[in-house]
Design a protein that fits this description.
The complex is a heterodimer of chains A (291) and B (232). Chain A is mostly helical. Chain A contains eleven helices and two strands, in the order H-H-H-H-E-E-H-H-H-H-H-H-H. Chain A has helices at 2-32, 39-56, 64-91, 96-119, 143-165, 167-177, 179-184, 189-214, 222-236, 241-261, 267-281; strands at residues 133-136, 139-142. In chain A, a hairpin with a 2-residue loop joins strand 1 (133-136) and strand 2 (139-142). Chain A is globular and about 60 Å long. In chain B, the strands form two sheets. A six-stranded mixed sheet of chain B has the order 6-7-8-3-9-10, sandwiched between helices. Chain B has helices at residues 40-47, 70-76, 93-100, 104-108, 110-120, 122-126, 137-150, 167-184, 195-201, 224-231, and strands at 2-11, 14-24, 29-33, 55-60, 63-64, 78-81, 155-159, 187-191, 204-209, 212-218. In chain B, strand 9 (204-209) and strand 10 form a beta hairpin. With 232 residues, chain B is α/β, with parallel strands linked by helices. The chains are: A mainly alpha (291), B alpha/beta (232). The A-B interface holds A 167, 170-171, 173-174, 177-178, 180-181, 183-189, 290 and B 48, 50, 69-71, 73-75, 79-82, 84, 86-91, 95, 98-100, 102-103, 147-148, 151.
């Protein structure tokens, strides 16, 4: 019983990390319909940037939170640049869907190797927010992981508020629901796409930092993160942020229980079995459904 | 107010608009007739910048707008109401109207415009919290027109507002267009297949055929049979 409860808790923790990771992917897809095949490497760029500021720039002596803010800002700018110089011209082409996928894939491979050149192949990890753990009854949870869950929850709430309340957020939703409608009411689509890439890259980088605090990272781990992200967003319904969050939590708990009862090597087969069943029964994912 | 001069437009290799010239004066309602697929909707999309002209020039209040992006044209005061409506289906009526007032000029007078829109379409006031994807064809059409009005236009381009509507809903839509023109002084250029209703509404008509203007006449001098003849 005790190990079961703790597995559920640990599943919720990795679930919330996966949710953060899937958000960036689903934001880009939902609004611009570009599928980011460089997603994992973008997350890794966020993680390495934060690592650089927290671990390496000792003279600056930045706390993790400040490193996260800087890293998100850098990734926001990078996302805007990628849109401005690559996506904007590519999205005007007739076969933009495949062109953008190939570009993102190529950019991922390029940045993976840039990271390899700059930081070397050795595994690194980002220091945790706090040491020690909290024990309540039979549940044992690290302070760090508790803080991570809090940060992810805060990020999800802030993002929802942003989409609901701000004019830029509302116009992003408008573009997601109807590009023609958005043009008709006078929204500057290209500006919104640019901001979307900035926002999504920042969110993706943010999730990479959190992943980097929980797992070790090397320049190649991004692809594994990306595959997990793909399964989650397809499971949750492409372009649906809430769907991605639910899917991430379900798959996080499944992962923890599978590890507990069958061993870690069964996680991927079970994930994909569930994923394939969902695709057969409900191809649009659990919450997808928008045309 | 609106001056279209020798405009040509293409869809890939297809020459859709051929040397089209047309004027709309301040306060007028002008109807655009013509068979399906002969360029009426394309002309509206060309004017509002969704499908910019390949050559020719379009002047709005004396200002060249031919190659200006659509979001700036909305800001200048032209609203286009597409036949396909293009509503934000997962949003409520209110959220759609709110986004209609996206440009900074209209955003300042959002409250007054909302009042006028709800007064013109009382049904929308009752249903302002309903999601648009759950509304009937007639109601969605009202939302589309209302959303266009929220951008505070001085020129409204309306593409087949009556298509697919019941006769009673049709007359509601036409009455509201008449009211918009009379009370707000908004100039209207309308594409319509319901010739009888549109003739009553408008002061002048243009007939488009095979991408070119066939003739231009005052509405009063025409009867329905003359126009129907021109269709064939």
């Amino acid at each position: 019983m005790e190990s079961f409860v703790n597995a559920i808790v640990s599943g919720l923790i990795s679930g919330s990390l996966y949710a953060a990771m899937a958000l960036g992917l689903t934001i880009i897809y939902g609004i611009s319909r570009v599928f980011n095949f460089g997603h994992g490497v973008v997350a890794l760029m966020g993680a390495y940037t934060a690592w650089l500021f927290v671990q390496e720039a000792k003279t600056a002596g930045l706390p993790l939170l400040a490193g996260m803010v800087i890293s998100c800002a850098v990734l926001f700018g990078f996302g805007m640049l990628v849109y401005q110089f690559a996506m904007k011209p590519l999205m005007k082409k007739a076969n933009w869907e495949i062109s953008t996928v190939l570009f993102m894939l190529g950019m991922g491979i390029l940045m993976e190797n840039v990271i390899l050149q700059l930081f070397g192949p050795r595994v690194k990890s980002i220091p945790v927010f706090a040491e020690g753990y909290l024990k309540v009854g039979m549940v044992q949870i690290n302070w760090h992981e508790l803080i991570v869950i809090g940060i992810v929850l805060a990020a999800i709430i802030l993002l929802n508020l942003f989409f609901k309340v701000t004019r830029t957020g509302q116009s992003m939703q408008a573009v997601a629901q109807s590009v023609s409608g958005a043009k008709v009411v006078g929204i500057d689509i290209e500006r919104i796409f640019g901001l979307t890439f900035g926002l999504a890259f920042a969110v993706t980088g943010f999730s990479g930092i959190l992943l980097g605090t929980k797992y070790f990272m090397n320049p190649h781990i991004g692809w594994e993160w990306m595959v997990k992200g793909f399964v989650i967003v397809c499971f949750g319904g492409l372009g649906s942020t809430n769907g991605a969050i639910y899917a991430a939590i379900i798959l996080g708990v499944v992962e923890a229980l599978a590890t507990l009862y069958f061993g870690a090597m069964w996680v991927w087969p079970i994930w994909f079995a569930i994923f394939l069943v969902v695709l057969l029964v409900r191809p649009q994912g659990i919450l997808g459904g928008r045309a | 107010m609106l001056e279209v001069r020798n405009v040509n437009n293409h869809y890939a290799d297809l020459h859709v608009l051929k040397q089209v010239s047309l004027t709309v004066k301040q306060g007028e309602i002008v109807a655009l007739f013509g068979p399906n697929g002969h360029g009426k909707s394309t002309l509206l999309k060309t004017i509002c910048g969704l499908h910019p002209a390949t050559s020719g020039s379009i002047l709005f209040n004396g200002q060249e707008i031919t190659q200006i992006p659509s979001h700036k044209i909305v800001e200048m005061g032209i609203a286009y109401i597409p036949e396909e409506r293009h509503l934000f289906g997962d949003m409520t009526v209110f959220e759609n109207l709110n986004l209609g007032a996206y440009n900074t000029r209209a955003h300042k007078s959002l409250k007054q415009n909302l009042e006028f829109v709800f007064e013109t379409f009382p049904r929308l006031a009752e249903r302002k919290n309903q999601r648009c994807s759950t509304m009937s064809g007639g109601e969605s059409r009202m939302v589309a027109v209302a959303r266009g009005l929220m951008s505070e236009p001085s020129l409204l381009l309306v593409d087949e507002p009556s298509i697919g509507l019941s006769p009673s809903m049709r007359s509601t839509v036409f009455q509201s267009l008449e009211k918009i023109n009379r009370e707000k002084g908004i100039t209207i250029l309308i594409v319509e297949q319901e010739i009888r209703d549109a003739l009553k509404l408008s002061s002048r008509i243009y007939m488009i055929k095979k991408g070119g203007i066939l003739f231009e006449r005052p509405a009063a001098s025409l009867d329905v049979s003359e126009i129907e003849k021109a269709y064939f």
